[in-house]
Amino acid sequence: MKAMLFAAGRGERMRPLTDTCPKPLLTVRGRPLIVWHILNLVRADIRDIVINHAHLGHMVEEALGDGAKFGARISYSSEGTALETAGGIAKARHLLGDEPFVAVAADIYCPHFDFEQVKEALQDNDMWGNPHPADKRDVAWLYLVKNPAHNLNGDFALNSFSIANEGDPKYTFSGIGVYRTEIFDAIEPGQSAKLAPILREYAARGQVGGEVYRGDWTDVGTPERLAQLNGERTT
C-alpha cells in the first residue's frame, strides 16, 4: 500500500509562522508534524509515500529528501498553486498507482495512530470470499474523532461502520482516510477539486465505511493550538 501526505496548504490561520515555514514542517515536541506521520507509516511498513506541496514546497523537499533517512521512499507532486485535496490526489495519480491508498493531512498531530489497520480497511470480498459488486463495495474508509471545540457540530454520523451524512451523534473527520482511486476518475490532473463533496456523494449511496479513532489527535490549525501542544503558555 502507498500513502499520500497533504502538504500543499497555505496555512493562513497559522500566519505569521507559515510565512516562512510550510505548516507541515512546524515542530511539535521536537519533531516536524509531517515527520510524525512518516515514521508511523514506516513503522507499519508503508514506505512508498507521495507528498504534494505548493507554498514553500522547496523547503519540504529539502527537509525530507528522498525519505531514506526515515526508511521511506518519498516522491513529490508539485502543484504550484494548491489544488485542494481531491485535486491534489488527481494530480498525483501517476505516483499513487491503481490500488487503494491511505491519505493523511500532514498538519494534524496524531502520534500514536497505528497504520497497520488501514491495510485491510477496504475489502474486495465478503466474509465468505464472494466479491462485492463494484457499485456496492466501500470506496473509502474514514477515521473519525470526537468533535473538538472548533467543530462541535461534527462532519459525519456513523452507523455500524457505515458513514452517513445525517444522524446523531456526529463525529469529526480526522484527516486520515483510505480511498479507491476510481472515485477521482472524473477529475482532470491540474484541476482544483474538494474531497468533501465526493465523500458525501458516496456516503449517500452507502459506499463509505469508517470508525472512530480514540487516540491522541489535534488539528494544529492555529498558533495557539501549536503552542499548547508544545507546553507553551498562551495569552
Q: Gist?
A:
The chain has seven helices and 13 strands. The mean pLDDT is 92. It is 22% helix and 25% strand.
How would you sum up this structure, described in words?
The protein is an alpha/beta fold and 235 residues long. Helix content is 22%, strand content 25%. It has 7 helices and 13 strands. The strands form 3 sheets. Strands 1, 4, 5, 6, 8, 9, 10, 11 and 12 form a 9-stranded mixed beta sheet that branches. The protein has a two-stranded antiparallel sheet with strand order 2-3. Strands 7-13 form a two-stranded antiparallel ribbon. A hairpin with a 2-residue loop joins strand 9 and strand 10. The longest helix has 11 residues, at 33-43. It is globular.
Written as H for each helix and E for each strand, in order along the chain, the element string is EHEEHEHEHHEEEEEEHEEH
Strand segment count: 13
Shape: globular
Number of helices: 7
- Which regions have little confidence, pLDDT < 50, spanning 5+ residues? none
- Proportion of residues in β-strands: 25-35%
- Helix % is 10-25%
Largest sheet: 9 strands, mixed
Overall average residue pLDDT? 92
Q: What's the Cα radius of gyration?
A: 17 Å
The class by helix and strand makeup works out as: alpha/beta
Distance between the termini: 44 Å
